[in-house]
Amino acid sequence: MSEFTNVTVIREANVYFDGGVVSRTVVFPDGTKKTLGIMQPGEYTFTTGAPEIMEILSGELDLKLPGSDAWNRVGGGESFDVPANSSFTMKVLSLTDYCCSFLG
Amino acid sequence: MSEFTNVTVIREANVYFDGGVVSRTVVFPDGTKKTLGIMQPGEYTFTTGAPEIMEILSGELDLKLPGSDAWNRVGGGESFDVPANSSFTMKVLSLTDYCCSFLG
């Protein structure tokens, strides 16, 4: 278990796909943001603005990154990068806890 | 929208009822704790240790408090108190965003 200290948390949740994906936004002292979220099983396509690092804290999903036709299994303790201004698709196989860092 | 500043957030989610209810723990400078959570539609019974204040940020549920046989509708912007060492049941009717404060 780990924690973020001296941060600001936006109280209201971010809700996507009718609650299939929900997250809270955490703002760090340097102004950078992360979201801590939960994905229910299902298939979700997200588009990015800034580049992102998705860290899977627990759970399991199949991932298709932009420009690829391949699906790759990602599980707890693994992470992946998503380029700016792109889209990626996840088939979430079991309840997935994640931390998404927004870069730049 | 509102925010909690200068807090610590536990990164890993709390997961209940196979993900029907998930939350993150926020620790304040005075050591008190709140959880920010999401409930999917469904029926959930929770037991309390410390007394709690449940604030419904959005969503809708029917609530049965300890010692009562009555169900009462609770919606966004409303809150309710739960005594220590008791149990309460919620029938969540639509995706519900909440903030739970633990007292004493």
From TrEMBL, chains A, B:
Keywords for the protein's UniProt record, in alphabetical order? Glycosyltransferase, Transferase
Is Glycosyltransferase among this UniProt entry's keywords?
yes
Q: Which GO terms describe its molecular function?
A: guanosine phosphorylase activity; purine-nucleoside phosphorylase activity; thymidine phosphorylase activity; uridine phosphorylase activity
Record the organism. Answer: Geobacter soli
Q: Which residue ranges run through the membrane?
A: none
Stated family: Belongs to the nucleoside phosphorylase PpnP family.
Q: Which InterPro entries match?
A: Ppnp, RmlC-like_jellyroll, RmlC_Cupin_sf
Q: Provide the Gene Ontology terms for cellular component.
A: cytosol
Tell me the name of the encoding gene. Answer: ppnP
Catalytic activity as recorded in UniProt: thymidine + phosphate = 2-deoxy-alpha-D-ribose 1-phosphate + thymine; uridine + phosphate = alpha-D-ribose 1-phosphate + uracil; guanosine + phosphate = alpha-D-ribose 1-phosphate + guanine; cytidine + phosphate = cytosine + alpha-D-ribose 1-phosphate
Q: Report which superkingdom the organism of origin falls in.
A: Bacteria
Please identify the protein, giving its name as recorded: Pyrimidine/purine nucleoside phosphorylase
Q: Which PANTHER family match?
A: PYRIMIDINE/PURINE NUCLEOSIDE PHOSPHORYLASE (PTHR36540), PYRIMIDINE_PURINE NUCLEOSIDE PHOSPHORYLASE (PTHR36540:SF1)
- SUPFAM superfamilies for this protein: RmlC-like cupins (SSF51182)
Q: What does this protein do?
A: Catalyzes the phosphorolysis of diverse nucleosides, yielding D-ribose 1-phosphate and the respective free bases. Can use uridine, adenosine, guanosine, cytidine, thymidine, inosine and xanthosine as substrates. Also catalyzes the reverse reactions.
EC number(s) reported in the record: 2.4.2.1, 2.4.2.2
